[in-house]
Every structure is written in C-alpha cells, then in structure tokens.
Design goal:
Strand content of chain A: over 45%
Number of strands of chain B: 11
Number of strands of chain A: 11
Number of helices of chain A: 0
Oligomer: heterodimer
Distance between the termini of chain A: 41 Å
Largest sheet of chain B: 7 strands, mixed
Structural class of chain A: mainly beta
Helix content of chain B: under 10%
Radius of gyration of chain B: 13 Å
Radius of gyration of chain A: 14 Å
Helix content of chain A: under 10%
Distance between the termini of chain B: 36 Å
Strand content of chain B: over 45%
Order of helices and strands of chain B: EEEEEEEEEEE
Shape of chain B: globular
Structural class of chain B: mainly beta
Order of helices and strands of chain A: EEEEEEEEEEE
Shape of chain A: globular
Chain lengths: 113, 113
Amino acid sequence: KQEVTQIPAALSVPEGENLVLNCSFTDSAIYNLQWFRQDPGKGLTSLLLIQSSQREQTSGRLNASLDKSSGRSTLYIAASQPGDSATYLCAVKGGAGSYQLTFGKGTKLSVIP
Amino acid sequence: NAGVTQTPKFRILKIGQSMTLQCAQDMNHNYMYWYRQDPGMGLKLIYYSVGAGITDKGEVPNGYNVSRSTTEDFPLRLELAAPSQTSVYFCASSHGTDKETQYFGPGTRLLVL
C-alpha cells in the first residue's frame, strides 16, 4: 500500500527566506506527483504536477523536483512571502488507470513578516 | 465558470440521522471524486465516478453511498451517521486523463454528535 510522508509537519520562516518542503513515498511505481496548497477552511489548489517521466516543474517562485527511484520529491519556494502561509500537501497517483491519489498529511507553513 | 461547488458548507447531525452532501461541477469533467479529511491527516478517497451511471469504491467507502445520474452532479449520501464520520468532505473533478490534475471544491464540514 502506498504511503506518503511529509517532513516537517510545520515550518515557520521569516519573510524573504528560501525554503524546501519534503515529500517521500514508499512505492516508486507512480504515474505522477502533485503539490497542492490548502488555505484554512478552503479547498485544495493544485500548484505543480510532475509526470513520472519528468524530473522537475517550475511555476513562478515554485520549483518541484521528483526522484522516482528514491521515492522523494521536494517543493522549493523562493523568496517566501506572508501570502505563502498555508498547508502544502503532496499527493501521488498510482499507475496508469489508477484513479486514486494518495495524500501526505501536509506541511503547515507560516511566513513571518 | 463556478468550478466545483459543494453544499452545505457546514452541518451538524445527530447520531443515526441521514443526509446528502451535494457536489456539482460545470467543467464537463467525466471523473468525479469524494474525499474525507480528518484533522491533521491527508485526504482519503471515499468513492469516485468515471462517468454518469458509473461509480466505484475508494479506500474508505463504508457508511456512504453515491450516485451519478448526470455528468454535473455527484451527491454523497450518509446513512445512519456516526461520530466517526465527523470530518471535512471534499468533492473533486477531472477530465480523467492521467496527465490532468483534480479540481477541488471548498469542502463541507460535518459534525456528528
């Protein structure tokens, strides 16, 4: 059974710092990996989607990497801002034809002005 | 284009009561999903549907039922509510191709007392 772990569970950084969030998964036979953002009381917003054949994806100040063989992904946030404060969830999708996303518990990020 | 909408936003149920959580999407997505998120935990898939008239169980289907009579709507039915069903419920949809992300609704917070 696929398991997804996110470390750390919570992170507090001063505004302007670069930071890295970590995600690991136990079964490397994934189809893709996604990073989501969740604001309090809100739904999830997709940030980046990395297919299993890709190594990284970038969107603005966000960069996500994927090392499928080692079962690891990182989300790099450059020049953090208070508006980045949210919970970040990592999710992996099983092989082609699998409909289920397996989620980690998330990392709660606080960016202090 | 409203995306994925869910009603109600919040509901308190007594043990043994029943209710239906509503979900609708206006993106003409074939695939729809129901997840639950318990405090401090990742999301777990309850049921999913690959098109009108077709539904299947996810990881945690016990105590729930679904139907999909139209492309747009995917209601989740709770029969005989139990305290263990206290959670936040998210509906999501996607085109269904493996390369696409899922779009999430804002969630329904359910408290069973």
